[in-house]
TrEMBL record:
InterPro entries: Thyroglobulin_1 (IPR000716), Thyroglobulin_1_sf (IPR036857)
Protein name: Thyroglobulin type-1 domain-containing protein
Lineage top rank: taxon: Eukaryota
This protein's encoding gene: AVEN_80923_1
A Pfam family assignment: Thyroglobulin_1
Signal peptide: none
Keywords for the protein's UniProt record, in alphabetical order: Disulfide bond, Membrane, Transmembrane, Transmembrane helix
Transmembrane region(s): 21-41
Disulfide bonds: C145-C165
């Protein structure tokens, strides 16, 4: 009987060892897969993460988030459904509140760049509700006219708050 017990114990031990090795192998595989998934998620840009998470069933608005080839936001981001709500974005962050009126982002981008460059208040453009430059840009007592699409000055500053811009 003692011989039989001696053979049974090593058999059970081998079985336990084999199961332990299999579980260890599975644990290593799962750890590697989990690590790869986390590194992929961490390497996503803000836009790519936003794009991946946009439009869930519980979302009030379903955004059609667009990223460029480098993973940065495209300036104009809009919802999928009508009426379209849009917002302006820099490469990394939102610049304007969502609105059904925004159709352009040049002014919001110029305003953001001016603020980041710490320009004076007279060099920070004002935008209209459509996202274009206000035709009349004023600072203190001086006003000038600008192209609403580009923001380029079309009439030099004058000390006239009632200046009319075409």
């Amino acid at each position: 009987m003692s011989c039989r017990v001696g053979k049974v114990i090593p058999q059970k031990f081998k079985l336990l060892l084999r199961n332990h090795v299999n579980m260890l192998t599975y644990a290593v595989i799962l750890t590697v897969l989990f690590g790869c998934t986390l590194s992929h998620i961490r390497s996503e840009t803000t836009c790519q993460t936003h794009q991946r998470n946009a439009g869930g069933a519980a979302a009030a608005m379903h955004w059609d988030i667009q990223c460029d080839a480098q993973g940065n936001y495209l300036p104009l981001q809009c919802t999928r459904e009508s009426p379209k709500w849009c917002a302006c974005y820099s490469k990394e962050d939102v610049l304007s509140r969502p609105s059904t009126r925004i159709k352009s982002c040049e002014c919001h981008l110029a305003k953001d760049e001016a603020k980041k460059a710490k320009k004076g208040p007279c060099d920070i453009p004002e935008c209209d509700t459509n996202g274009k430059f206000l035709k009349k840009q004023c600072c203190q007592q001086n006003c000038r006219c600008v192209d609403p699409t580009t923001g380029q000055t079309t009439r030099q500053p004058v000390a006239d708050l009632n200046l009319r811009c075409p």
